[in-house]
Amino acid sequence: MSHTRVRFAPSPTGPLHMGGVRTALYNYLFAKKTGGKFLLRIEDTDQKRYVDGAEEYIMEALKWCGILWDEGPDTGGGYGPYRQSERKDLYHQYALQLIKSGHAYYAFDTPEELDAMRKQLEAEKGSNPQYDSSSRMQMRNSLTLSDDEGNHLLGSQEHYVIRIRMPEDEEVLVNDLIRGEVRVNSNLLDDKVLFKSDGMPTYHLANVVDDYLMKITHVIRGEEWLPSAPLHVMLYRFLGWETATPRFAHLPLLLKPDGNGKLSKRDGDRLGFPVFPLQWKDPNTAEISSGYREAGYFPEAFVNMLALLGWNPGTDQEVFSMEELIHEFSLERVGKSGSKFDPEKAKWFNHQYLQSKSIGEISQQVAAQLEKNGIQADSTKIESVAALMRQRANFIDELCEQSMFFFKAPETYDPTFAKKRWKEETPGILNEVSGLLKELNPFDAQTIDAALHHYMEESGHGAGKIMPGLRLALVGSGTGPDVKDIMAIIGKEETISRIEKAVLIVSH
RNA sequence: GGCCCGUUCGUCUAGGGGUUAGGACGCAAGGUUUUCAUCCUUGUAACAGGGGUUCGAAUCCCCUACGGGCUACCA
User: Domain span at residue A372?
Assistant: First the structure.
């Protein structure tokens, strides 16, 4: 059995959509699972739509996700170049080959003529105007023109395209790994342009030629390509590569969380979640689109979430490392129907990873985030805070936000909580507690806890009389972890000082 | 309009003739005897509709409805 070779072939027309990332991921998983190669090929045959920085963005995004290619524009490989614009000279000969074998022809129709044809056909037939076997003989092409005329036009620098000559009434079979056999009659297929007047191939020709030359064994791509798959099958046949036709797998689409339709950038803006892996700034409009990386997602969580959107292992397991995904993945377990993206579940995945990462790694990121907010602290303290606070958060920045009081004494006190829990006797109690805390040594959570309980017994005050006041003094609000843990982390001096300050301020 | 693909809790999904239709997210209630979270427990909720096939259909077939994709000298 020959080695599997799959490719991800994005077009550098902008940032990579998360649906595109998922396509890349499934290709990658399939390649690694089967011990094959994963290649990255840039499909930049449309120079009009080329966007500066898009190619770099795609590569950076894939790398961030840990989706690494074995062959690609930067890494090279035995089948390069991996940018279609650099393969430009390759394609013409195959178009020519098709013309010679009678499977393609030159067409000279101008855009205006094509437009007129469509309008006329629409009027005549009521619908479905196509450049196909039924209409091609009414157009200006090498089939209808005399050889002399045709040659003259070709020689006179007149713009022309090369179209496939779709045969009449033939059944075209696409064998799809996900959907089974899809049959289409060739009468429904039109004479698609294969070679454009600008000297570039269209996607259809280029992807078939490159897949063949790059020895691609499996084409795993989005469902939007299913309608043109029969055309690609025909191309393999006409080029004489029928036995080398790759297996196809058309992936279901990623849908918007509400309503219908595929997930778009608009939905992200509207519902407040990123649809791109990385932040992107449009070089033309300067418009900024948010990314998962900048939103605080771990790449592992992002990838994990994406993997489960359309694929499942058939077990209850939901958290997967990349290694596990590679081990478990199979195209057979990819679903057929589109998946609505659920931003809430995405957060849940990040929460899972925030819990399972090492304290060291979490602390490092917390420290970096704190520094951005102008806070420096020693790593031991940050580690304690991270360990105590991470289970309450989904993201690093959320963790930091909720942990600010560890590093800065409260300047205001939540009035609602104060009104409810700060009683007349509270200052007195807090003064007693603070006096007691002064004597504690060591000042750790266990000792503090014991002292607090001892005080409760002695004084007869219940926890409800003591704790809320302490919390307000330490945090400034009614939220947070156990007060004894807070005290232990901020230390004796700071604890005493915050209590004294609160006693002074909260009671007015 | 035409062609193609699809349809199980609100969402992601398991299920491949016989199940109390399972899990997860979300939501709700209770618990962890200070809060807010986390966490644990419980609950909530689905086979689009109609015909077949069969002793028996979520599972197989057909039709309808609905949804989506494609229908460029874009990918």
Answer: 357-407
